[in-house]
């Protein structure tokens, strides 16, 4: 296969992955059902805490998604806030973003960012 042919196949594969991921809701723009929108709107102050850092692209993605969907959350930057870093360390947070979801009697942690995992952790 020529160099142009290889490039064309590579570009077609990339385009296919992009289209596939969008179709199945893997990216951050996946559509929300009315029930999911209602669940996000019902998040109370103090229910969602995100441990984040400035050098974290996934944190930026999470912040943008949460803001776009108007989710009530708090962000605690472990690089800029010593108290935040101490609290994160005490909880065993090893990477960002890590979410602490305070629902029910026991807080739960969600490590990493994926909108569908976040929705599942919220109980949707």
Automatic annotation (TrEMBL):
A Pfam cross-reference name: Glutaredoxin
PROSITE patterns the record matches: GLUTAREDOXIN_2
Gene3D superfamilies associated with the record: Glutaredoxin
UniProt lineage: Bacteria, Pseudomonadati, Pseudomonadota, Betaproteobacteria, Burkholderiales
Annotated coiled-coil segments of the chain: none
Protein name per Swiss-Prot or TrEMBL: Glutaredoxin domain-containing protein
InterPro entries with a match to the protein in the record: Glutaredoxin, Thioredoxin-like_sf
The organism of origin for this protein: Roseateles flavus
Occurrences of domain Glutaredoxin (ranges): 48-98
């Amino acid at each position: 296969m020529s160099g142009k042919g290889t490039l064309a196949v590579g570009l077609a594969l990339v385009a296919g992955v992009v289209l596939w991921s969008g179709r199945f809701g893997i990216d951050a723009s996946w559509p929300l059902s009315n029930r999911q929108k209602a669940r996000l709107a019902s998040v109370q102050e103090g229910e969602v805490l995100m441990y984040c850092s400035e050098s974290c692209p996934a944190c930026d993605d999470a912040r943008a998604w949460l803001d776009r969907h108007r989710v009530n959350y708090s962000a605690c930057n472990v690089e800029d806030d010593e108290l935040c870093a101490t609290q994160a360390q005490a909880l065993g947070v090893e990477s960002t973003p890590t979410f602490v979801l305070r629902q029910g009697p026991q807080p739960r942690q969600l490590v990493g960012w994926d909108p569908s995992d976040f929705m599942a952790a919220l109980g949707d």
